[in-house]
Amino acid sequence: MTRVPRILIVDDDPSILEVLYARLTASDFLVEKAGDAEAAARILKEKPVDLLVSDMKMPKKSGMELFAEIRQHLPDLPVIFLTAYGTIPDAVDAIRHGAVDYISKPFDGRELIRKINAVLAARKIDDESEPLGDGSYYWGNSPGMRHLKDMVAKVAATPVNVLILGESGVGKERIAGLIHKKSLRADHPYVVVDCGSTPAGILESELFGHIKGAFTHAVKDKQGLIQAAHTGTLFLDEIGNISHDMQCRLLRFLEDGKIRQVGAVKAQAADCRVLAATNADLPAAIEAGTFRQDLYYRIKGITLTIPPLRERLADIPALSALFLDRYAGDQGLERPRISAAAMKVLTDHAWPGNIRELKNVIEAGAVLCRDNTIQPWDLQIETLRENAAMVSDLPDTASGEGDDAFSLEASERDTIVRALRKSRGVQKAAADLLNISKRAMHYKVKKYDIDPKAYKNGI
């Protein structure tokens, strides 16, 4: 049975404590309450706690002082701070020293729960990973993925054909591979056919094979991929793209279990389980007359749908860690870490390319980062929300109105200007002074509309 996470909330305002308690218990967490830092310290000594949510400004002992004590005895305990705009600089400093995040008062309860789930999901990656081929597959905790995991376990041991649906990049081939690995045919061939990228004229020969002299350049007999998958599993990726003629030939094979090579007279038996995948809307294609309805019902013995990444954002920290572990292991390098600001960018992105896009972004970030820490400007994401945290190593949650809401940006702009003055307008030298990358400096200069040439004389 899965253990329910225990969260400690600390605030000297009883009304805020009650709001936090109601919100967290409604999300099925175990919750401990403390009205000050000393009470929180006592609870931490008596009970195991998975995450701490603390106010920054409290009487007697501040949230920062409590945080300093926790780092000595519980260095791995994740901490999220609640802060008013006046204490944002303290929260900024706390994150630089290891806190995972902060959220501004008045806070959005749903945003707080999202942050908590993301942190806890990252800590549970070892328990939720399952071997798959040359790496690991992370199922995650979203309802859609839990249902998918149960369905895979049920269908894998059966001989039924499976149709796997999902957007490009969600991992359809991974799921197909896992079904084969858990099936009774696991010790037999597993053959993958990319129907989407293989021209129609070549696909027929690839699937069914041909005999010598069947067409120009057919200089010898060739075994087809269906025959190569005999006794094993055949995975037809992007089956929605095959031609009408190929649909007819494939339907005949699925009906009688026999294939005939191009140019051959006699058919031969081929026993293989068929898994198919597509990101196309096959019912719509049937209505449009571009996909055969009888073939559709042949391949969809059971249908599995993989949720897009935007529907499982809480899994992003764990997936990112998984990709970093693989990259570092393959390259023989120390595993980079992801800053809180970079993680906020990752969890705010819509991910149209799904898991494949996330993997590429994480690997690019590992290549581009400095000091073994991935920052927002290291992430190769084409479109970012305008207010994403691109200007510091902290999440930019100051979104209210008034001068206080822009205090961090104003302070950073002043720091950049001072560095440019000292370096006489040389951006690389200014970046070195600030211990950031040259790319980050270029971004900040553009962001704040600063002309480095104006400071070439140090004025």
Contiguous helical run count: 19
The CATH homologous superfamily of the largest domain is termed P-loop containing nucleotide triphosphate hydrolases
Report helical residue fraction: 40-55%
DSSP strand (E) fraction? 5-15%
How many independent structural domains?
3
Shape: elongated
The whole-number mean of residue pLDDT values reads 82
Summarize the structure.
The chain is α/β, with parallel strands linked by helices and 459 residues long. It has helices spanning 14-26, 37-46, 63-73, 88-96, 109-123, 125-128, 143-156, 172-181, 200-208, 225-228, 244-256, 282-288, 293-299, 316-331, 340-348, 354-368, 407-422, 427-434, 438-447; strands at residues 6-10, 30-34, 51-55, 79-83, 101-104, 129-132, 135-138, 162-165, 190-194, 209-210, 222-223, 233-237, 258-259, 268-269, 273-278, 302-305, 337-338, 373-374. The chain has a 5-stranded parallel beta sheet with strand order 2-1-3-4-5, sandwiched between helices. A 5-stranded parallel beta sheet has the order 9-12-15-8-16.
